[in-house]
Amino acid sequence: MQGITEIRVPVDPLEWQISQEMANSIVASLANTIGAAESVLRVAATGHDKKLFFKVVFTLYFLAALGRVVSGAAVAYAALCIFCLYMFAQSTDLFDQLPSWVPVGRDSLGGAQDTT
To answer: Which residue ranges run through the membrane (predicted)?
Structure first.
């Protein structure tokens, strides 16, 4: 293999470090998301909220049907794209410009509100 040279790119390990505040923020956000999902699933599993129960059942059925048609990598890629669009919209305050009938926020999912 003549003509191929190895190019070494120096990587500064300090460039990839995050602050303690950022790490705490990431972990807190993840814990909030997991806690909210657990709360929604607990309420749905008890059957006290029929509307939420059927939403969860429908979503799981839809995801199972989607998994039979499309590969998991394609679904993960689509979810990543939607998540990136959501983060972009949230960072540019596009949610403030939505009409009032568009459900935005955790309370629109039917989950219990966090009082802490």
So the answer is: 60-89
